[in-house]
Give the backbone structure.
Amino acid sequence: MSLVDKRIKSCLSPSVHHLICEVWESKCSELEQTDCNSPEYVKGDGTLNWKNVKKIPFSNLELPSTDQNYESHVNHLVPVCHQAHNWIMQLSEERFEQLYCDKLEWTGQSKIFLESFRLLKSGVSVDRVVSLLLCTSALERALGDVYLLKKSPCPFLLKELLSTDELQDIFGQIQMFCLRILIGPPTSLNLRNIVWHGFSSPMEIPVPYTSFLLVFIASLSEAVYDVVGDLSMMQHRQPFQLSHFQFCQHVFPGVTHESVTVMESLVQSSDFVLPIMQPYWHRALKFYQNNRYGLCCVILLPQLENSLRNLFCRVNKCPQRIITAESSVFYTTFDEMLSPTLSTGEENVLVSKLGQSYMELLLDLLVYLEGPRIRDHISHGEVDVMSVSQEVAKHVLCTAMAFCVRYSNDKSSSKQLKEIQTAATNYQSCFHPVSYLRRSLQTMITDLPKVSDLPRPPHDAEIAQKNQPGDNIGELQEKIDKIAKVLVKYIHIDGVTVNDVCDVIRCMHPSSSVDDILTLSQQIKVKTLFQTRQQLEIVSILRHITSEALTVTSQIRAVAVTRFQQWQRKELRSRQRNNYSRFLNSTVCLLVGVRLLALLLIAQLSAINAIPQLSAKNYQQLLKYLKGVLQHTENLSTLTSIEKNKWDESCKQTEEFILKTEKFYSEK
């Protein structure tokens, strides 16, 4: 079965195509004969004449509209859009700025709307869709900011936001009604969802709808002014930062001008891209080449969804879902495409077809809660598109190209494309909870030598006292060595030999190198795809333990530095010197305890894959033990703070942790 049905001319369902395209064409033909009799809908200052708009004979504005009602609504709105388009298209960029710069200030995104105007006027069909993409996302964000003037939190779904009494009270009934016709529920034109989910080809959406949106948004400024007064004082939420990509910046090779040329050819030959959608991909590559990285992502993300939807529908044998859903059916979106099962409960064949690495690549980019979820954040206007970095665009572009290469008939791929495919094939999640745990654990291990090498007086015996915490370190070290030997047996890593075990045990000594346990933590292979609830629960506890342990080591360092400096300056009083002495004697006990904790975390991380095979009883025992360890680290975090300085209690906590760990593993 061919991956792509190249006969597809539209991804809009017949009813959606009729409402968006045919109703427009029919009404425009009628307008050509009656245009001279149309009321004035756009005033001389470039804003909508709401007095005349209110005279449009829409049906009852209070009731939810049916499919049939929306066709009537669209018919009535077409003349307004037509006039707005004619007005916008005769403006120069300079004139547009003069007229609208102040009127768009309420959105906090004037630059985005200016860019939308430039794209609208470029004459390139793809650019006009990009203009609509930018307008809808920026408008959604701006409306949310206005809503927050009245109430919190802001509704997550745009259709719910547009139906709120708060926005209707601020902007007016007819204003919100017009907006619902354009970007409201699935029964409306629903332009926002259609373009952001990648359903429309470059020539399908009538351009005047975008022109009308630009005029409409500027026309709302007066209503916002009535609420806040000075538009420049309007409060806006901070944009979402795509800082996540620091963790995957070296996954893919650099993209050069030569690479872009090769990618242009790949788009033409790959079965991953529908022929009607190829212009989008070519334009995205051009934007990347011209350092317009945000616009590159704005185009590619909906197109990646379109191509994956096509693949999803083919492998799951539901070709009818390639097109837009009707108002009574949900769109086939990323959430369903990247789930293990279909809405019917059947297996999602796409998962096995793509394999773990490609699935992780997509889940990292689009779905995982602690990942960038870049399509969601950009499409809802939460990201400053104009400041998207090359690093982010490269990752999005290379992800898309990895799929193009995989489903290309041309097997003579260039070196650059082969490198991209290799990176995708070997990809490991960067944003799954396990990935965060692994990074924190490795940070914890690399910090251990810093804690072992603390500043201390040259002859600290002078301030030491008998029977201080840590005096039984020899006994504790023996217990730790014994536990370490047991723990190593539970570390499920291929290639761990007897010598490795001995090296790991040596790492438990406070002044020893941590290289061996660091290497061990780096060798752990954990299957992260579709982990069970129990696995995620254990990972969450391990992450909290690691976080508290990092706090403990950080606090020990801070206390050591602060007290040492005070000792040097002879600022310590008698009681403080005594406390400092107790601290110095306790550090060995605390640090061997933290090293044992690091080994325990390695063992538990390596055993994540086996959790689904545990009996209910064994799982509950493990859960209880780990919650006890978490309580220990939380207590230790409190006791070792510079405000508390409870070193007797800290050592007691550590001794209890060692004994409980010894007991738990002796009973396994």
The radius of gyration is 31 Å. The chain has 29 helices and no strands. The mean pLDDT is 90. The CA atoms of residues 444 and 550 lie 6 Å apart.
